[in-house]
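Office hours follow-up: a student asked to see two folded examples consecutively, so here they are.
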Amino acid sequence: MTLHDLGRLGGALLLAGVAAGAFAQGAEPWPQRQVRIVVPYVAGAMGDVVTRRLAEGVRAELGQPVVVDNRPGAGGNIGTRAVEQAPADGYTVLVAATNNFTINQFLYKDLGFDPLRRFEPVTVLVDVPSVLFVPASVPAQSFRDFVGFARANPGKVNYGSPGSGTTPHLSAEAINKAHALGMTHVPYKGASQVVTALLGGEVQFYLAGAGVGAAHVKAGKLRALAVAARTRLEALPEVPTFAEAGLGGINASNWWGVAVPAGTPKPVVERLHAALCKALADPPTRAAMVQMGNVPVCNTPAEMQRQLAEEAAAWQRTLPGLAVKVD
């Protein structure tokens, strides 16, 4: 663990002490019962895997049961809305992807709420740099090869995503337009379904976290052409970065963050933050995250709030140029 990591963990533990002091002044200590973590995607998605890995450590820290509740649908909007409407008492927590916090409000006409106003940020858990996966049957050893393949097969190349409006969809469409690939978008219900389609040749291109397809790469069934990170991933060290592969500055990172309904007491937010960061700092857990191709983050609520505001503004400017449609 680096000094930076130790500093973040120390800060998290300090927040826990502050929260405990606040409770000691008369408020009922939280939690007194089960905490439910809603993941608005199907089981097996990266956020679900990360959440379930952390749940036991969070349970041990809080001293109460912690359950993971998958509520998929509508690009994550169904589960996100369920948490937005829940009581602001800390017993219903959201773990969701980039698009649920910074994109969907600009894509869906009837989203019904503003995530920047209706949630209290807790922390970004992990950044998940996307890897460009193609089936081994596609004759491309590099992204430049894939560009040639796609242009030589107009109307025959598809890219998959875990749903319309998700970050993998938007980032892939940005690549599609920037490099004139002429690919057709095929949405699925979740990451595992896209991988099945990729292996079966239904789609020829998929942006996803390394953990989704790394095993298939090692088995020779998929090929990884590039990773959207500043440096190469420990999980796939032979795969070039987007910059090295010629993809330019396209944003294809998808992080997973934690939030609670607006109005949740600050001491509750602080204790939840401390429990999550302590669980994430556990050496075996941290090593597992890195092996999956994730970059552990665990920033402060204020840092996450600034990140949300900045990214939401950036996506609001970018989306009109992509001209994507969602159901």
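And the second, which I mentioned at the end of office hours:
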Amino acid sequence: MAALRLYRDGRLVETLVLDDSTRIVGRAADCDLLLISPAASRQHFTIRPNPQGKGHLLVDLDSDNGTFVSGVREYTRPMLKREIIQVGDEVILYEPEAVAAKRRASSQLPKWAVTTLRGIDRPSREAGNVTNAIPPAVQRRIQAERRTRLQPHLVLEDAHDEQAFALDADVVAIGLGPVRIQVGPGKKNEATVLAEVVRGRGQSFTVRAKGLFAKVQVNGESVAKHDLKPGDQIAINGKTLRFEPGIGQT
């Protein structure tokens, strides 16, 4: 059967097998494929068997920020071959039955998809065909988020959303108040650094607690420092940060 495959931070997080029913994709808890991007509507688009022939039919549900197929904003789109669907910073691959049957789902975003995404981001794209249909403020946020997720970063998780922070400096501070990655308010708006992520050689990163006897939790264990691996969970001040190497970096 055909399938939708949702990738987040370049990693496969969910597969939705498409049958003869109409499937709903969006942020609402009862959707068949659940999105978390702030640019996604509660019910963003549907996908069902194409009544005119082979493949499927994607229908945007009057979403605020649009559904993009290979960089083009679509309202009703027959899906006949493998395609990249974008809703905000969410990346969904559509695989028709012939492709899904032959290939096992890749745990990492396939190279063809990475190449396509980078091509969509190029400034030379034609006006009117891509994300300039999104309101400018939302477009800037989505593009900044996508650039962040292409490189090593930390994802701050909560019950409703995710926020990505690029590890683009030699030392990135995590703490309270006005620091790079804030996990709580500071007293009198003063900065308190609880931990740091330090860049090593190449794309290696180490998280270390700030202070002689300070510790953080990584994957549930209390540590003074830890060399980060993809998917590592860092718990600080009741917040959870997930380390991701970036799309195309692994």
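Two things to take away from it. The chain has three helices and 22 strands. The first helix runs from residue 97 to 102.
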